[in-house]
Amino acid sequence: MGAADTVPGVSGGTIALITGIYEDLLSAIKSANTQMAASILRFDLKGAICELHIRFILSLFLGIGIAILSLARLMNYLLANHAMLTWSLFFGLIVASIWVVGKQVEKWTPGTGASFLIGAGVAFVIVNLMPASTPEDLWFIFLSGVLAICAMILPGLSGAFILLILGKYEFIIATLKNPFLFENFEIIIVFLSGCAVGLAGFARFLALLLQKYHNLTLAFLTGLMFGSMRKIWPWKETLETAVIHGKLRVLKERNIWPETIDSNLAFAVCLIIAGFLAVLALERLSHVKD
Asked: How many Cβ atoms sit within 10 Å of the Cβ of residue 237?
């Protein structure tokens, strides 16, 4: 999930779904409730830990944190220097994820079909938004954390891409390169505080939807992934660029078909297939675990 969350256009929520831990994740987040907070205020640490799904949360978020810190530089390098090949791998991941999650809808009906189309439409609109120039004040960093974490746990909507739209992707990634500088540490703490607030509220809402409208919700999540595929199509043509905060940004681009048949195309197709097979392998491993 951490590796996926560093890439604009790829969602950690997708990885949670295909590995079979999505509903466990929402339940674990819900366990951070008012009873746990009351135990902390009473200095009852044992009681607070009993309320919280501590082993699941520590294992998962430690893994996410290590992946984000260790892969931030690598993802920046790959997207800057090998964008087509990188997007090819993730395109294969998302195609297989749509298939895997779609199978979890117990029965496809006109209702679930409509839910799928709504999800696809929402994702399509969001991924077509242009990156914006936004303030670097702490209040906006907090808001960015709230919005990014909500996207992170939604399959098909990338928290990293929401940060890109808000003009804060490179800003946050830059702080992770030197996280122990005071200025960077302050930004990271404020951003994580926003993430915690957004996660606590939004996870409960999603868990309620999955409990009461399981098939409709899964169809909507599948649609989100389908609608996001336009963003991660590997072959693109840049139409308009601009310098924002000293960085050259792509403002407008369009998807194109590969222009030549060569070794790069063959490698890209192999990566698409590898991504597709990796998701199927993850799904199989999750069933073995069950």
From this structure: 10
Instruction: Report CA 11 to chain centroid distance, whole Å.
Output: 2
With beta carbons less than 8 A apart as the criterion, state whether 101 and 226 touch.
Answer: no
Strands 236-244 and 247-255: antiparallel
The C-alpha angle 180, 184, 189, rounded to 5 degrees, equals 90
Q: Which of the listed ranges 55-59, 208-212, 267-271 does the model predict with the highest average pLDDT?
A: 267-271
Global pTM value: 0.69
Question: How much is the mean pLDDT over the chain?
Answer: 80
d(C-alpha 10, C-alpha 17), whole Å: 13
Q: What percent of the chain has pLDDT over 70?
A: 82
* Residue 269 banded pLDDT, cuts 50, 70, 90: very high
For the stretch 139-182, pLDDT in tens is 999 999 988 888 777 766 667 767 877 778 778 877 877 778 88
The region, left, alpha or beta by phi > 0 then psi within -120 to 50, assigned to residue 20 is: left
DSSP-derived 3-state class of residue 257: coil
- 176 token code pair: 């992770």
- Which domain does 92 fall in, by range? 2-289
Between CA 82 and CA 64 the distance in angstroms is: 24
Number of separate domains in the chain? 1
Longest distance between any two alpha carbons in the chain, whole Å: 67
Angle, helices 263-289/83-102, rounded to nearest 10 degrees: 40
Spatial neighbors of 37 by CB under 8 A, at least 6 apart, are none
| Identity of residue 4 | A
Average pLDDT rounded to a whole number, residues 197-225: 84
Which residues does residue 24 pair with via DSSP β-bridges, in sequence order?
A: none
The region that residue 9 occupies, defined by phi over 0 for left and psi between -120 and 50 for alpha, beta otherwise, is: left
